[in-house]
Design goal:
The complex is a heterodimer of chains A (about 300) and B (about 270).
Chain A: H1 6-19, H2 21-26, E1 31-32, E2 40-41, E3 49-61, E4 68-80, E5 84-88, H3 95-103, E6 110-115, E7 118-119, E8 127-130, H4 142-146, H5 148-152, H6 157-170, H7 186-199, E9 204-208, H8 216-233, E10 236-241, H9 244-250, E11 253-257, E12 264-269, H10 284-304
Parallel strand pairs in A: 5-10, 5-11, 8-9, 9-10
Antiparallel strand pairs in A: 1-2, 3-4, 3-6, 6-7, 11-12
Chain B: H1 9-40, H2 46-49, H3 52-64, H4 67-99, H5 101-116, H6 123-130, H7 134-158, H8 162-170, H9 175-212, H10 218-227, H11 231-259, H12 265-268
The chains are: A alpha/beta (about 300), B mainly alpha (about 270).
Chain lengths: ~300, ~270
Amino acid sequence: MTSAHPERNGAESTELLAKYPAASKKMGNVVKFASDNRRPYTPVDSRIIKLSVKDLVIGYLDKQTGNTMVAVDKVTVDIREGEFVTIVGLSGCGKSTFLNSVAGLVKHQQGEIRVNDRIVTGPGRDRSVVFQKASLLPWRKVGRNITYGLELSGMKPAEARIKASHYVNLIRLNGFEDHYPHQLSGGMQQRVNLARALACDPEVLLLDEPFAALDAITRELMQGELLELCEKVGKTVLMVTHQIDEAVLLSDRVIIFSARPAHVLADISIPIPRPRKNHVKDSDQFRELMAQIWSVIEGNANIGGGI
Amino acid sequence: MRLLTVLPKSRVAQREKIISLALGGSVILLFLIGWEILFQSKIVNPLFISAPSRVVLAGITIIKDGTLLHHLGISAREFALGYGAAVVVGFPIGIILGWFKLARATFGPFIAAMQATPRIALMPLFIIWFGLGMTSKIIIVLLSAIFPLIVNLQVAMGTIDADLVQVARSYGATRWQIFRTIALPTSVPFLITGLRLAAGRGLLGVIVAEVFGGAEGIGYMIQYAGSTFQTDKVFAGVLVVAVTGITLDVVLDRLGRHFGKWRSEAAVH
């Protein structure tokens, strides 16, 4: 899939150029994505809203009592093109439910979700999810696992392989295409999972605690790789994690969810300049941001008795 | 850790294989020698027990005069048709019962009752309905072979990894795509197990049905030889059946290994 609506993208860029004359001057030396030359990288101020969530309410059925409980309560979040936004919160606060709802896997009761201004009613090719578990098809070799998402969208395996090869190189999986998943380490399996998601070239990439199942060292390494990767491809990303350092390291903005039912407690922008390296974790700025986020979470936990 | 010596893995495996072959083979050889001695010494009435040498001679005779080929051909055809029908019918039934809860609730008890019924006891009925010819044997093979297939495939559908289904759904997979890319591959090892069990049951079915009532086939040949005290021919017939059974099992096992390459080494061996 190159782009779901190329004509719309074109229309939007002209519209934006009219709105932001300053941006049009900069368009002279447009940085283009290696993966998709239709979408130019545009400066910060003109970035369009890729993902828009408005007053989202998600309920779930409590099987013991038979009551419908509220998991997510009127959450509004906007994510602009190329932004990396992370949601943090106590475990069980409903952040994964929120992400699954954006993925189209969980139905919401009120509010709306839009990707590229199109209302989300279910799973779609404009979004890819990377779950905590790699969940690779064990009978498929790595190559065919990476192209799985593309094949589900109707692409022929040979064509999909060509389309995915860019990400195979970028995630340094070349040479592993003929391995079966059980022959790979956990970190490598998760990389295949990531490559599978990116190969579909989604408008929004959704990461659901992608490194939570890995050991501490591998997690650290993978964070560094994801950081590098995201700065290279400039994807719009929504991630959910309970690792605050991971959130600060990777994100442009960190959104803090309250204890269940989840609502937005704070939306903190992370002004650490890019490109970032793993060692920004040692800076004072990083520590201050961590402390700031932690104090919000802690305050909420004490008031709500959420722990 | 540094390696001190590297012993080729194949040589170790080869040595183990030779030892186990020698041990297993020597028991069979001892049995055959003992049997031959028992016959030659005439401790037991030679007419009753025959001997390996006599069995080989009888085997050569029935191969030469075409008796074996004729009966084997009949039995093979009965088996192939019944077994083939069992696969063609049993595979979708097992999948449907495993995939749809409602189908399981509706037909599950009926199939369980059918499975509990000894099929061979129905042989008199099948002879009344379909005669002494091939049809009644095909039906017995079908009914013997179909249940292991149904049960194994139904179980297979229950082992589908829910996380994989979630991933497929997140990529917008249709129900058919989930079936084709996840449910079917999941079912393969179970299908192979089902095929192996079904082959054994089917073979048993065809022989017993022919012994029970018929005018052709290996089972009939054994039964006829027995009733005319040609014990050497009985053993020759039994040997043919045993070799056929082992061959079928080995072929299906190879097939399973071929399709099981994606599984970890531990799971295959």
